[in-house]
Amino acid sequence: MSGFKHLSINELIHMSSESNDIQVVDIRDAASFTAAHIEGSTNLTNENLATFIADADMDKPLVVVCYHGMSSQSAANYLNEQGFDDVYSLDGGFSAWSLAHS
Ligand SMILES: O=S(=O)([O-])[S-]
């Protein structure tokens, strides 16, 4: 069984409006993240991954964002294996998010 769920842009907008507890991690490269990212998201890299996992509240929903929604799926699965109970992969990734907010 896959350890993550798919989340659409609209579902993320809805979830964020209902709760402040959602953690959003962006696994794109640092330059892309710096150029633009979802407000409140954290750039998750190989360098800060261990610290992020150690410090995180694993009971809170965790949404993983990549470029187009492909690599976020394996990252979401991995993070679920690390103990996050409620993990989502953002369908369409940051490119879909940008389109929806342009
Ligand atoms: O980031 S991506 O795998 O969707 S191209």
TrEMBL record:
Enzyme type, top EC level: transferase
Keywords attached to this entry: Cytoplasm, Transferase
Residues annotated as domain Rhodanese: 18-102
Organism: Shewanella vesiculosa
Superkingdom to which the source organism belongs: Bacteria
Lineage: Bacteria, Pseudomonadati, Pseudomonadota, Gammaproteobacteria, Alteromonadales
GO molecular-function terms, A-Z: thiosulfate-cyanide sulfurtransferase activity
The enzyme's E.C. designation: 2.8.1.1
Name of a matching Pfam family: Rhodanese
Record's protein name: Thiosulfate sulfurtransferase GlpE
